[in-house]
Amino acid sequence: MSDVKEIRGAEALRATVVFNLGTLGALAADHFAERVEELGLKPKHAGVLAALDAGAAASQQELATRLGVAPSLVVALADQLQELGAVERVRDPEDRRRQVLTLTPEGRRLLDLCVNAAEAADANLTAALTDPERATLTHALHTLARHRLPH
């Protein structure tokens, strides 16, 4: 009888969205990480570049809040991106304690390469889907992202 419960449990687990997203998400994240590593970046670097591209120049603190990470992580990532020439730090003339980050042309170039890497990873991940299935999946993921799980 316990064997039946174990099989049912495994089947039930594999039937959940959370388990499937977690499993596929880990595989997709690893695949993306491998691709951006070839650029000398980590996925979090790509996240910083994308966040800076999506909005006006931001302080390190604002960026940490926007990304939902510790400010010390943003400082470390910004240090690395600055070494690559991808971001510039400028003192805010209204508050000299505040450093504002902006993308450089090199940062935009690296972001474009990250987009290419993500699109290639997407194509690999969704190769078994038809175009309508891919569009439906993308729409569903965007809907889920807008209504995130509570922490």
State the distance separating the first and last CA atoms. 37 Å
* Strand elements, count: 3
CATH architecture title: Orthogonal Bundle
Q: Note the run of SSEs as H and E.
A: HHHEHHEEHH
Structural class: mainly alpha
Strand content: 5-15%
Mean pLDDT: 89
Give the helix proportion (percent range): 55-70%
Number of helices: 7
**Quaternary structure state of the chains depicted:** single chain
Cα shape: elongated
CATH top-level class: Mainly Alpha
The major β-sheet equals: 3 strands, antiparallel
CATH topology: Arc Repressor Mutant, subunit A
Number of domains: 1
Short recap of the structure:
With 151 residues, the protein is mainly α. It has seven helices and three strands. The chain has a three-stranded antiparallel β-sheet with strand order 1-3-2.
What does this structure look like?
- This protein has 7 helices and 3 strands, in the order αααβααββαα.
- The protein is mainly α and 151 residues long.
- The chain has one domain: Orthogonal Bundle (Arc Repressor Mutant, subunit A), CATH 1.10.10.10.
- The longest helix is centred in the N-terminal third of the chain and has 21 residues, at 17-37.
- It starts with a helix and ends in a 5-residue tail after the last helix.
Please outline the helices and strands.
Blueprint: H1 2-14, H2 17-37, H3 43-54, E1 58-59, H4 60-67, H5 71-83, E2 87-92, E3 95-103, H6 105-125, H7 131-146
Antiparallel strand pairs: 1-3, 2-3
Helix pairs in contact: 2-6, 3-6, 4-5
